[in-house]
Design goal:
Layout lengths: L6 E2 L3 E4 L6 H10 L1 H4 L13 H16 L4 E7 L9 E6 L6 E8 L8 H17 L3 E7 L3 H9 L3 E12 L2 E11 L3
Parallel strand pairs: 5-6
Antiparallel strand pairs: 1-2, 2-3, 3-4, 4-5, 6-8, 7-8
The protein binds coenzyme A (COA).
């Protein structure tokens, strides 16, 4: 997959991270830590450092080239050189053309439809350019905001995944949703 991907929506510019984005990516994670941490298995020391973010961007680049994932950073069209305001990803892309989707938006911009705008653009890109036919979204059963968005995108509940993820030494149930990506 080419790394020169730039998806432009009504309000957003979405593209894979590059090394110089590490500083802003780390700032995004630090600003949003209290909102993001509850849904993650862990937040290791240094996870939100510029160094670790640069390494994450390099890992993402390798996965992109290998066709395994497409992870993009979001910036506002009105401030294209400004802060990173979210991320969106198609990952675990499989040969039979299914993939998982994930998203996160800056707390200051929640409730404006930006996560939905990004996710819809990624779904379109996945269908048009990657041949994705089925998308999977997995989220903690009590992540209500995420579930609302997933259902608004047209995903349907598929199954409960008991004890799917360990967060802070406690096992949590998740819900799996699926979307057949229309041609
Ligand atoms: C999950 C998450 C991405 C949802 O973000 P969000 O901003 O609520 O989602 P949307 O972009 O769909 O915005 C929906 C809201 O914007 C409003 N909205 C305003 N303008 C809108 C527009 N033009 N289009 C659509 N919705 C719009 C909707 O009415 C809705 O408001 P409400 O929440 O008061 O009902 C966000 O809460 C988040 O980053 N959470 C932490 C990370 C996370 O949990 N990720 C998912 C892990 S599975």
């Amino acid at each position: 997959m080419s790394a020169d991907i730039r998806i432009v929506t009504e309000r957003l510019i979405m593209s894979p991270g590059k090394s110089p984005d590490a500083y802003e990516f780390a700032s995004f994670l630090r600003r949003n830590r209290s909102r993001l941490e509850p849904w993650r298995p862990d937040w290791p020391d240094g996870f939100d450092s510029e160094h670790e973010c640069r390494q994450a961007i390099e890992r993402d680049h390798k996965e992109l080239i290998a066709g395994q994932s497409l992870r993009v950073l979001l910036r506002l069209k009105s401030d294209p050189e400004g802060p990173i305001v979210g991320t969106c990803a198609l990952f675990a892309i499989r040969k039979r053309k299914s993939a998982e989707i994930g998203f996160q938006i800056d707390g200051s911009l929640e409730g404006q439809g930006l996560a939905r705008e990004a996710a819809e653009a990624m779904i379109d890109h996945g269908r048009e350019h990657l041949g994705i036919k089925k998308l999977i979204a997995i989220c903690l059963e009590n992540n209500q905001r995420s579930i609302v968005l997933i259902e608004r995108l047209g995903f349907v509940f598929c199954r409960a995944l008991n004890d799917f993820l360990t967060i802070n030494d406690r096992k949590f149930d998740h819900h799996q949703f699926e979307l057949k990506v229309a041609k």
